[in-house]
Amino acid sequence: AALHGALDTGQLTLPAGVSAAQLRMLLNRLGRTKWHVQIMTRYAHGQGVATYLARYLRGGPLKPGRILSWDEETVTFRYADNQDLDAQGRGTSKVLMLSVTDFLQRWLLHVPPPGFPVVRSYGLYAAGKRAVLAQCRQALGQAPVAVPAPLDWQTYCARQGPQHPECCPVCGQRLIRMAPVAPQRNHPFGLPSPPETLPGARPGWPEAA
Length: 209
Description:
Layout: H1 2-8, H2 20-31, H3 46-57, E1 67-70, E2 74-85, E3 91-99, H4 100-108, H5 130-139, H6 153-159
Antiparallel strand pairs: 1-2, 2-3
């Protein structure tokens, strides 16, 4: 577009023997070609590739450009109100000012806990492409993907060391299970909870009066 504009305004000097029509045809033909406008040197390790792709896979809850101002007490930022749509069906852009404490509380609500997956596997790493992935790894001379054994709760607790969840936080002794305690839940429609039954038996509801 910039070359077309420079040609129209006479700011572009053409080579000898090249007319404006020929240059326009060349620009139109090259414009339909897919170009890699920025080619960087190859990464020496996979960490650089993972860091580069991570910016496109998962972003933060708020882009820095949406923060308008901040000080020691308040933060002012722009957001899209999806409850108030414009003519194109998009959320109306509005401005909100929060205290630093409230802003951080809302921010931390979007931070996933450690180990919680927030990006689904896709492409060769999707669940339905395991056979194709195995073929690719075999063609590259790589070993098949090792499937980790399922982790039971006993092994997980043993890995916690002194923070074992079955140990009393006061005396440090292992807790002894005496009897299971059934959770007490209130029915959303005000109906009583079903009575306790033996394993395998169907719970019965009290008959209506």
